[in-house]
Amino acid sequence: MNRRQFLASSAALLAIRPGFAQEAPFRTKYYPISPGIGLHDLTPAPDGTVWFTAQGKGLLGRLDPRDGSFKTVSLGQGAAPHGVTIGPDGAPWITEGGQNAIARVDPGDLKVTLFRLPEKFASANLNTGVFDKDGTYWFTGQSGYYGRLAPKSGEMTVFKAPKGIGPYGITVTPKGDIWYASLAGSYIAKIDLATGSAGVVQPPTPNAGSRRVWSDSRSRIWVSEWNSGHVSVHDPADGSWKTWKLPGERPRAYAVFVDDKDKVWLTDFSANAIVRFDPATEKFNVFASDKPNANVRQLDGRPGELWGCESGNDRIVLIQTIAAG
Predict the structure, then answer these.
(1) What is the pLDDT of residues 165-217, one digit of tens each?
(2) Would you list the domain boundaries of the chain?
(3) I need a labelling partner for 302 at 20 to 30 A (CA). Which of 28, 34, 84, 266 fits?
(4) Bridge partners, residue 74, by sequence
């Protein structure tokens, strides 16, 4: 092999291997997916793989972090998936806005099953979903809706959200409560699981742009505020709020995730970074992407691992904790 062939071969190998960077006590890796695929959300699976939605191509994908390989499956004609979560059955469940349906993909044969919303909610603009402790799937629609699906029977009920458009992120607490955030409405709401009604709770910052929510181990609700650039926490036990502004100029907090150590992770579009917040010390760590316009739209994780989708670069990013921090 001559030098030119060697360099070409080396470049090819580097192109398919996950990127690597490090900031002790953390290690960052990047997993390139197909350019133009339109990455949006992801969720780690129990088998070590990571499911992801590709909104631009109407696909669901599964990444194998061991070698960076991935497989995709079409969700149907006109598909435009947004959120994905793992159900009690071990399968990925997707808010599939393009077909106005909740989609389930069998992890074995990749068969797609659709649960379509009623026709009168044809433009729900589905966003994200979670399962409660009884196995009911709850979801949001940014056009002003939220709803529930009983997977076994297929029964679906859709509710009109208070204050209209905006329902976006959704979370389930260790206590079993379901909360969602309204981006356009700038509020969070607790859903009454029996009646389906939503009780609105206003953040202390007006027009905050409450985009996504995640519960910590104490069933407190952490909120990423897109308009204000804040991260806030609401404690339903006493009704209190605490708020912190992300570092830097004009932060735009998009995603939020709380890890198994109750550390809070967010994404900041303005800083082109993933941000880690320690509530105990009230300090931030900033993990800037190695490429511009990363636009990480969603975060999820498992112990010692933080996963995100760089929608701007069509890469999946992993931040591993490699020491106590």
Answers:
(1) 999 999 999 999 999 999 999 999 999 999 999 999 999 999 999 999 999 99
(2) 26-321
(3) 34
(4) 59
